[in-house]
Every structure is written in C-alpha cells, then in structure tokens.
Amino acid sequence: MMNNKKSHRIYVLDAILFIVFWMIIWWGLMVWKQNAVFNKLIEKYESRYIKFWAIDEILESEYYDEETLSGSKADMVEWALVGYVGAIDDPYTVYLKEEDNTELMNELEDNAGFAGIWAVIEKQENYVVISEVLKNSPAARAWLLPLDRIYMVEDQTLEDLTAQEVVKLIRWEKWTEVNLFIEREWKKWENPTRFWVPIIRDDVSIPSVTSEVFEKDGKNLLYLEVSIISNKTTALLLEEVRDALETAGKIDGIILDLRGNSGWYLEEAVKLLGHFFPRDTLLVKSKYKAYEDIDHVSKWRWELWNYPIVILVDQLTASAGEIIALKFQEEWKTIIWMQTFGKWSIQAVEDFNDGSSLKYTVWKWYSPNDVNIDKEWITPDIEVERDYEKYKEDWTDNQLETAKEELLKIIE
Question: How does strand 282-288 pair with strand 357-366?
Fold first, then answer.
C-alpha cells in the first residue's frame, strides 16, 4: 500500500516537472520571439531615423551657440514633424502645429460669427480673381461678377497676401461695410473699367436645391441646381420635383447642376442617388486599410430612374458631388463642362495634448467600376468653357444652354 502511494506521488511529481519544463521552454520561446520582434523594430527605426539622430548629436556636441539651440529644440521638432508628414504625396494628410490647429478650429467655428461677401476667390499675381458669386449673396447684390479682379480691400493692396489672408481682410462682423477696388474687363479689345464697390457683410442662407422648368421645343426640362450635399438635400430635391410636376404637368428630362458643389455628406449622396437607381444597385464603395470595406447600395424608391438626365460639373465639384456625377457617368448619362476637383478621400483627426493635431487619410471612395479619382478628376463627356463675356452681356449661361440641347437629343 505504501509503495502504491509512493508511486502515485512520483507520477504527480513527474507530471508537475514535465509541465514546468515545457512552461520554461514556452516562456523562453516567447522571450526569444519578443526580443526578435523588438530587435527588428529597432533595426527598422534605426535605419529610418539614424540620420536624424546623427544630426541632432552633431548639433548638441558641436553647434557653437548652445543657448540658441536649446531655445529652438521644441520648434525644431515641430517643424520636423510638419516636413515629415508633408513629404507624403497627399495634400489632405498634414501635421498641424498648435498655432495652426487653433487657427483652423477658429475658421471651422465660423470665426465667432464673422460674416463676409460670399464669393469664391483665387489668388493671381497682385490681385485676386472672383471665380464664383453665390446666389442671393452680398457679392451678388453688389453686382460683382465672375472674373472680376480685386486689387485692394480698403487701403490694403494684395500682392503680398495669400488668398486666405485676403479672405480674413474681407470677413468681419455682420452688417459692417467693406470697400473693394475692382477691375472689370467687359471686352478683350476694350480697356478694363476700375471702380470701388461698397459691400455690406452678411450671412447667407443658401438652399441646397433650387429648381426651374424650361420649356424648349415642346419639352419640359427640369433644372435642379444642387449647391451642397447637406443632410436635407434629398428631401429638398424631391420636393422641387413634386412642385415642378404639379406646376408643369409633366417632366420630359432633368438637368442636374453640380457646379460648385463641394460635397459634404456621403450618406446623403447615396440617399439622393437611390432615387435615380433601382433598389440594391451598387452606388459607391468605401475602402479602408484598418477596417472592413463597405458597399453602399440603393435602398430607396427609384421614381426618377426613367428620366433622361444631363449632369453639369466644374472644377469646384468635389467629394460627395463627384460621387453623384461619376455614378451617373458610369450609367451612360451625359456630363458637361470642365474636369472636376478630384477629392475622393476622407480624413480623420488625431488631437494631441499640446494642442497640435494630425489630419490623415483613412479611407477612399471607389465607383462601382472600381475607379478612384482622388487627386485626379472626372473627365466630362462634353467639355464646354464658360463664356463669361456672354454672361456679362445678358446673363446667358452657355453651359446650361448646351445641357438643354444635349438633353433634347437624348429625349428624341
């Protein structure tokens, strides 16, 4: 009996020793594996940043003005990060230093209620040129026109300023006046006219969808201008369609104007497209690196599917606006005017405790045909330069007139 108990204890001890032995082996393998991974990381980052560390060491040990170097260290790191991220070939991935990030946040918050003239400007040499004048805006009420040149804001010349700095000069408190010195070229062969224009700054409520029915050659053409893709755009568009049907009795075709549409909400773009395409139609794809890809399909009534349609786009059509345009183009709908802006990516922002931030691209959109136009653009089927001289003479929109002619061809 004693021998049996002794044998039992020996077996248990052997089992324990066996388990401990393999635990030690397992632990050793894990340590070895972790060290191997750690060593690979060290090798990776040593090879990548060894020059940075070498330069820092040289400056620390040999740079003459130690006090200047010491006082510059924080800025050196910040500017190094700006350059490091900026070297990526992606204009939407940036490192923002604390002061730049604060300025951006203030702009996103609408500068604490500051108002403006609501015109889109581009910097040229020693002036800025107006590329777009928003409807019902202070700029429109002052009769400013596309291609007008602004040479001065009050007594400030603009040659040394960026477009953003000019915007800051123009924007101020609501109901205050700003004076702009304008040059307008009516005809290429005539001397330009120069004059001062006083404008009262104001906020503008711009509906995201406006409409008009054009009667041409016995056909009713519904013109839908979609200025932005907000969370109410689809409802407003359907309301405009219903009102047009009640007023005109019938609609023979649709012109969808996405010129100047910078996008906004992907979900709303998908929702809007869902009324033009049958249920379960693939509309756009979201592709990620760190997450599972998403296919966005039509889930709504497709009551607008059978209407012939022509799309108007321009170089300011971007993001969600381009999603709509490219889906129509892949379905053999006609797109008119210029190449679009070319932004089919979405960014996330990582904020740091010191007030700085990293804005970086986390996903991109692809069309159902697996086309991504980020940093490229949608090429129109029919390219029509805008005739600004005709527009200045009698407000004729030659691109819209082309769209009407093309839509009539499709209807017939």
Answer: antiparallel
At residue 327, the 3 state secondary structure works out as helix
Q: Give CA–CA dist 125/114, Å, rounded.
A: 27
Contact 317, 259 (CB under 8 A): yes
pLDDT digits (tens, 9 = 90+) for 173-194: 888 999 999 998 765 546 788 9
Q: Cα–Cα distance between 259 and 321 in angstroms, integer? A: 9
Give the chain's length.
412
Longest dimension (CA), the chain: 123
**Distant-in-sequence, close-in-space partners of 374: CB < 8 Å, separation ≥ 6:** 342, 343, 344, 345, 364, 365
Q: Which of 147, 336, 291, 136 is nearest to 227 (CA)?
A: 136
Give dist(CA 315, CA 262) in Å, integer: 10
Q: What is the DSSP string of 89-152?
A: S-TT-EEE-HHHHHHHHHHHTGGGG-BB--EEEEEETTEEEEEEE-TTSHHHHTT--TT-EEEE
How far is the C-alpha of 191 from the C-alpha of 202, rounded, in Å? 32
- Beta-bridge partner residues of 122: 129
Strand partners, 121: 130
H helices within 126-253, ranges in order?
138-141, 163-170, 233-248
- Give first-to-last CA distance, the chain, whole Å: 107
Q: Which residues contact 58 (CB under 8 A, 6 or more apart)?
A: none
**Pairing outcome for strands 309-313 and 253-257:** parallel
- Quote the CA–CA distance of 399 and 380 in Å, as a whole number: 12
Q: Which two tokens stand for residue 366?
A: 């692809």
Closest by Cα among 258, 239, 248, 262 to 220: 248
* Both tokens assigned to 1: 């009996």
How many helices (H) and strands (E) in the chain? Answer: 10, 16
The more confidently predicted of residues 240 and 5 is: 240
Cβ count within 10 A of residue 367: 20
- What is the model's pTM? 0.65
Segment 303-336, tens digit of pLDDT: 898 899 999 988 778 778 888 988 888 887 666 6
Angstrom CA distances, 319 to 137, 205, 374, stand at: 24, 22, 9
**231 neighbors 206 (Cβ within 8 angstroms):** no
